[in-house]
Specification:
The protein has about 850 residues and is mostly beta strands. It contains seven helices and 43 strands. The two termini are about 40 Å apart.
Amino acid sequence: MYMCRSKVQWVGFTFSALAMAIASERLSAAEAAIGATEHVEVVGQAVSLDKALKQQRNSDTIESVVHADGMAQLPDANVAEAVQRLPGISVERDQGEGRFVSVRGLGPDLNSVTINGTLVPSPESARRAVALDVLPSELVQSLSVIKTLTPDMDANSLGGTVDVQSLSAFDHDGLFYTASTQAAYNKNSHQTSPKVSGAISDRFSLGDGIDNFGVAAALSWNKRDFRSDNVETGGDWDFNDGARLNSFEQRVYDISRERTGGGLNFDYKPDDDTKLFLRTLYSRFKDSETRNSTAFEFANPQAEGELGKAKTKRKLKQREQTQEIQSYVFGGERMMGLWTLSGQAGYSKSSEDSPGHIAGATFKGNSSFADSGFYDTEKPRPIIGAGFYDPASFTLDKVDWEEQNTKDTEKNIRLDLARDYDVQGYASQVKFGGKVSRRNKDNDLNAWVYEDFADLGYSDAQLNLERFQKGNLHYSLGRFGPGISGGAIKDLIGGLNPDDYYNQQESRANDFTMREDINAAYLMNTLDIDDWRFIAGLRYEGTEFEAKGTGVRNGEFEAQDTQRDYHHWLPGLHARYQLDKNTQLRAAWTNAVVRPTFGQLAPGFVIDDDVAEFGNPNLKPLESSNFDLGIEHYMGRAGTVSAFLFYKDIKNFVYNNDLAGSGIWTDFTEAHSYANGDSASLYGLELAYSQKFDWLPAPWNGVIVGANSTFSRSSASIKGVDAATGASLKRDIDLPNQSNTVGNLMLGWEDDKLSLRLSANYKSDYLYELAGINDKAHDTHVDAQTFVDFSARYALTENLQINFDAQNLTDQPYFVYSGNSRYNNQYEEYGPTFSLGLTFTHF
């Protein structure tokens, strides 16, 4: 009942705001001069696309652009989902939401994200990738994915750099403001989520100047309550005799995500030759998750439909994480005759705080269940007796309690100097400069394990699930049974002394401090010869790296401190040739260097008898030589067709590896770490087309079509040792996270009042994670996905617009399989989401 009331309240709020806004508009119209004619126009798809294509056409690099329209809105509500519409781009989703961006099949951690030219560090302890859904879309003026880097750009991306340019007061003439409200309904959770946002900018006159000082601000808040249903094996299949399953889990996630973002930007142009700016951004992402799960472990591996004994558990995880991102960039440009001096100073800080929470509360079944099994290898469902659904059948075994805090800061100063000159009548420019950046990442984890409750005098009745249950949970994939109350668990352990349960091994092995200092310098020259433009240059990057942490060897602690430095000289060459007024060729040879993730570089280790797990702070950075060749043809308003070939020769790619049986790990049964591969290659073809058919008779002149696809292939080799025999092994693989086919199709229509868009995004399956070098059957793959979305905008008045969006209309699940698509690793459903909103804009 409560959820229904919430839905009615928010929908009622939306339509109440709609009524008030319309009344305000009618009052303004009544006060207008008699005879005035109101002109209503949707500023939407074609305008946004046309601006993006103009930026893309004039760029010195190969890049793809998404531009906000005149309403200061991206074509998608989510920044990450707006980027995925571009050629060669796919999105890594978390709980059904697009968050991390993959470029040309390379994983999100191999790309970089910058805001106004300054690197954004990652709030997550193990990653470099930055989730783009935390950025308020109202603050974004344009998003571009730069796929070929010039020497004056950071060389830290293999696939591309996602550059976010925020709103400036000089993007609009005079006063501009917009405000939006929205209610979104998720079919899976049957809950409605609110969103409010707004942006404002204006120009002012300082000194003798006229409208030479600009201020722009934006604010966004939304809260999304939703649910996902999951079943996963974690790859626990035995393929020695057919396909037999050892264990699996059913999971129900109840999730609440709250996003708050804002920015305040200043621009000052005291004269025609000087520009100064200050860009600020703050983003807060609060993720609250309650996960109930049921676990089944068979006494012996069982085939589908077979019956045998099974041990069971019911578990709870309940945690809250808050991620914050702050970015401050101050810079400017000064033209002095033939010279141009520019520079900026940036400071960014990301953090993730997970206060004390239930990392796992485990209830064990009081006895084994006979005649148990499962059916459906893709979405395993249990075959089990009715007692499994009785809370009296389970007793509390242990509670894992954790808290964690991660901080990642990046400070940089950049200075560039350029001079225009003439070479035998041809325009040329030499540019040189340098950049100093300092990055520090810290992770602090504390863990406690509460167990042996019977030794403390608790009776079986006091620890029975009946005392902790929270009603039967809805589960779309079958019957689930009782949930677990997190409050009751907290009450139980709240009276215990936490010092008696502190887990030093888990806590200290996961703590680390890493420092990454990069000094860079470059020299480049641009030369225009008739219809040609050439850019040639050389970039130097020197890196100093240090990682401090703690290792645990059979219960004894060892301090770890690794220091190293390395240097890279990175040449580059770009060429652009104007075939005719609307057609141009592009070619580029570039070089890039990307550091491994912080999880891969982690200095801590845990060695317990013949089992070891550790990071590798001595990993080499990934190096790539990149070749691009393509053609672009522009066709009037919002029209283009393009084709690009690309090839990447990658050295030192990183993969997870089991070193057991080799070197100092000869006598170990498991030794999991990370290693550098020798070389890998990635090549492909990008095709793109868009067109507004404005030359056709009505209503066909409102049709807009867009399509793009990327076809790519990769190859790599990994080496290892057979732990059983000690024999050397080698295996050819695809690069992890690389989809062979990525594509978008968009069909839109708009006139002066109405804008409609139906879009589909497709990504083929890809290798997610490697198992042992001689265990291809347990490699995990993510299955192909197709997402279909629909959006509609209608201009009620000149300044008032109503919006409707429907996402994931096909109810596309997330499916990970082990070796073969018939065998589950993870299956998750989210359901479609429908939203209704209202936007008021003055410009």
